[in-house]
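PROTEIN DESIGN WORKSHEET
SECTION A - STRUCTURE
LENGTH: 165
TOKENS:
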């Protein structure tokens, strides 16, 4: 995907790819040299390598369903390029690729220009950099409850329970 075109979509809700295990709908947060940052409802912040994205869809009627409100100060990792991004999230629990047989979760232990290493149980798995389509490291935004007043009442009830003990 062309960076100039992607820059025009920052702040909008888009669909990455038309279908398949890597397809997601989310809010485009930022675009960098060879990747972009997408906030999704189910996976949180996902970093997509642009050379693996086949299509980006923007609804002309703004009807793509995105059920999260983006916090004003969402603090997510950024770097000039994808390799530096991986270096900045070393030792984090990550998920590489969203679905399919090449999806894997573990602790990112190393990253260089050729591969990224994940510790998965008792194994060290090395992913070729050219086969990493996207990565996330656990940063998620919680979906607000439908009725906030119930949530605050529950908090008050819990305080009462503590006094009774």
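SECTION B - SEQUENCE
RESIDUE ASSIGNMENT:
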């Amino acid at each position: 995907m062309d960076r100039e075109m992607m820059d025009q979509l920052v702040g909008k809700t888009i669909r990455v790819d038309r279908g398949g295990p890597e397809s997601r709908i989310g809010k485009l947060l930022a675009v960098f040299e060879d990747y972009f940052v997408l906030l999704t409802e189910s996976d949180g912040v996902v970093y997509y390598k642009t050379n693996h994205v086949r299509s980006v869809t923007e609804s002309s009627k703004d009807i793509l369903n995105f059920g999260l409100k983006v916090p004003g100060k969402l603090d997510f990792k950024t770097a000039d390029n994808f390799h530096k991004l991986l270096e900045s999230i070393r030792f984090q629990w990550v998920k590489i690729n969203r679905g399919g047989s090449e999806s894997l979760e573990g602790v990112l232990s190393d990253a260089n220009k050729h591969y990224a290493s994940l510790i998965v149980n008792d194994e060290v798995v090395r992913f070729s950099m050219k086969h990493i389509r996207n990565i996330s490291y656990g940063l998620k935004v919680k979906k607000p409850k439908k009725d906030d007043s119930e949530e605050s009442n529950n908090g008050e009830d819990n305080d009462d329970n503590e006094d009774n003990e």
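SECTION C - NOTES
Confidence is low (pLDDT under 50) at residues 148-165.
Helices lie at 3-7, 82-88, 148-164.
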